[in-house]
Amino acid sequence: MTVIVRFAPSPTGYLHIGNARTALLNALFARREGGTFVLRYDDTDLARSKREYADAILEDLRWLGVPPDVTVRQSERFPLYADAAERLKAAGRLYAAYETAEELDYRRKRQLARGLPPVYDRAALALTDEDRARLEAEGRRPHWRFRLDHRTVAWTDLVRGESHVDCASLSDPVLIREDGTYLYTLPSVVDDIELRISHVIRGEDHVTNTAVQIQIFEALGGASPAFGHHNLLTTASGEGLSKRLGHLSLRGLREGGMEPAAVASLAVLVGSSEAVRPVADMGELARLVDFSHISRAPAKFDDGELDALNARLVHGLDYDAVRDRLAGMGIGGDEAFWLAIRTNLTRVADAATWWPVVEGPVSPVIEDAGFAATAAACLPPEPWDAATWKAWTDAVKAGTGAKGRALFMPLRQALTGLDHGPELAGLLPLIGRDRAERRLRGEVA
Question: What class of enzyme is it (predicted)?
């Protein structure tokens, strides 16, 4: 079977980490199977869909490392949906209903008060041609419902295993609104048939939709794809994710300095039997996608866990991977500086914190001027390299008798103005003899 999957966001806001989970599971599955990853913009809501959001979605997918192989827009495919609707009407599966929202709400409340499920009673099916003409003369316009077969629909879910929904417990879904616009369901099925989607991988909040969509597939003469419904991500406190949580948008995470591989690793591996760990190579991450290993319980997205993953990735980045970013921040020092500081970073942007330690100016902290003077006198001649720090501190130890923290902390404070930071064996050659001597004399340098 040729694998063709789709990610179908509505361009009404920015993608968040939960959306990324769905996109990545689809794209990586397709990559592993040598298939096709389709980006389908569900933009039938012309009033709320914005080009800026569509552009941002594509930018986010590229940043994550999963650019689509094919891109389609539902707003350009309305004739397909109109044709499908007419076929369903002709088959008696799509029927006109005229109830207002208020009338439907009243009926649901009455059913609930009587202990009955709030399922649409199909009253519209009993309308005569005269009834419909009268209602339309009153100014009412119909919405169109799909008549479900009252039977159990079963499928083998890639994540959940054997699954079923009793369609007798569902209301006939509205597929077309009074104004003629389409709800999600019909265009989605039509596109899945026309694009030959082989697998629909999405969040478990769509499980009930699956039974409805399988019946629409059958009514339109299309083959149903395989379905997989993964668990959803929540915040660390258990709150559901939404587009209003800007700090968890992919744009927000990117602007916050997160590495795409860290975001992808957490989005794919959290809530599965795989240990959450940084995976820098997307091919390797694709090999870890196993739908049978995804938990049924919601998975919590923890900012702190993402920070830790990001740090582990940054610590392993080669200089070539960050060269341009460092240059863009005005940071010099080349590879030697990067290797000296990278294990102290959570984000690459944090490198800007440590460059002033090399370039200055630094306000030295000197508590014992005599110790600092002896240390200055022990500075060896240049050129300096990675061995200079040990040779110098051995000389200072011999000259002052200080050792351990009493030796190293005053040197760090004098050279950097701080009591913590990267290993000075790597920074000292970059600081250089002139600046080191001046700082040991208490000068701002």
Answer: ligase
* Largest separation between any pair of C-alpha atoms in the chain: 109
As annotated, the binding site for ATP includes: 243
Residue 371 to residue 421: CA distance in whole angstroms: 21
**Short-list 409, 344, 346, CA closest to 372:** 409
CATH classification for the domain delimited by 80-176, as one of 3.40.50.2300, 3.30.470.10, 1.10.569.10, 3.90.800.10? 3.90.800.10
Start-to-end CA span in the chain (Å)? 67
Neighbours of 249 (CB within 10 A): 23
In 281-360, where do the E strands start and end? Answer: 299-301
Which CATH code fits 4-72+186-231? 3.40.50.620
362-419 pLDDT, tens digit per residue, is: 999 999 999 999 999 999 999 999 999 999 999 999 999 999 999 999 999 999 999 9
Q: Domain 235-315: which topology?
A: Glutamyl-tRNA Synthetase; domain 2 (1.10.1160)
Arch. (CATH architecture) of 369-440: Orthogonal Bundle (1.10)
Give the residue numbers of the binding site. Answer: 243
Identify whether 429 is preceded by a cis peptide bond (ω within 30 of 0): no
Q: What is the pTM of this model?
A: 0.91
Per-residue pLDDT tens for 240-293?
777 665 658 999 999 999 999 999 999 999 999 999 999 999 999 999 999 999
Question: Taking the domains of the chain in order of start, what are their residue ranges?
Answer: 4-72+186-231, 80-176, 235-315, 319-359, 369-440
CB 203 within 8 A of CB 19: no
Cβ burial, residue 370 (10 Å; 0-12/13-18/19+): exposed
